[in-house]
Amino acid sequence: MSPMLAVKDPQPDFQLPPHNEPALEMLREAKDYASTQALAAGGAALATGGIVHPFGWVLFGLAYKPLVAIQKLARLEKLTAVLLNEFKSKGIQIFPVLKPEDKNPIDLFIRFPQRAHLFISIRSRGDSQVVYNETKEILQVKKKNKSGLTTWKPCPLVELSDYERWLTKNRALFGMSSKEVTKTPTVKVLVLWPPTKAASDHNPHLYSEVGSMRLLALRRKGTAFVIQQEEVTEFVKAWLAKYE
């Protein structure tokens, strides 16, 4: 190894943020703890911050209302478990609940070292359809059995773009060189959780092919793919295949 490369390597005592099995276990325990406390206290103690527990890094980072946080933890747990089971042999590193300054948390940052990076935002807007307004470059939500559209704020597409910039500035957290963080192919993904779905009548030019998948590819501060929860595994496989 050349001296130049050696300088960029993490120190022997370097530790990555919680990921893979330890992070999954923390998600499970945080979800169970939050659920128990919410039932016992009607959510009041959680809402006022009156509960101190060993998994505060998760609930603090989530920055959501108590019952929403419990749902979010359950979804993160499920998706982390599925991805870890499917891609552990591929060297996957799954980092849940990373908290950029003054922004909503990064639900999942997924790293296949020196092969691919993925940012995943998990979102649900109940029984509704998500519509992309090309003219205004915004996401809108159409609730079932209701007329009209509401603007989705904060916009998940803008958030995903912010997360990518955050990684560039905070690469040292993951022991990455500037070359790795800038040269590794990175994809941003908005995962819609049932019953929320993307509207099926977007203009054809808004779709792109990833492997055999035809997906919404929305260009708002870079490109982000919009997929359904059940498509996550297939999408990751197809994205990895591009770089094998």
Keywords for this entry:
4-stranded mixed β-sheet, 7-stranded mixed β-sheet, 37% helix, alpha/beta, 244 residues, globular
Explain what you see.
This protein has about 240 residues and is of the alpha/beta class. It has 8 helices and 11 strands. It has a 7-stranded mixed beta sheet with strand order 1-2-3-7-11-10-9, with helices on both faces. The chain has a 4-stranded mixed beta sheet with strand order 6-5-4-8, with no helix packed on it. The relative contact order is 0.12.
Annotation, overall tally of beta strands: 11
**Portion in strands:** 25-35%
| DSSP helical segment count | 8
Q: Report the sheet with the most strands, covering strand number, pairing sense and barrel closure.
A: 7 strands, mixed
Shape: globular
* Strands side by side in the biggest sheet: 1-2-3-7-11-10-9
Helix content: 25-40%
Cα-based radius of gyration, to the nearest Å: 19 Å
Task: Give the SSE string.
Answer: HHHHHEEEEEEHHEEEEEH
* First-to-last CA distance: 25 Å
What is the mean pLDDT?
87
Helix/strand class: alpha/beta
* Uncertain stretches of 5 or more adjacent residues: 1-7
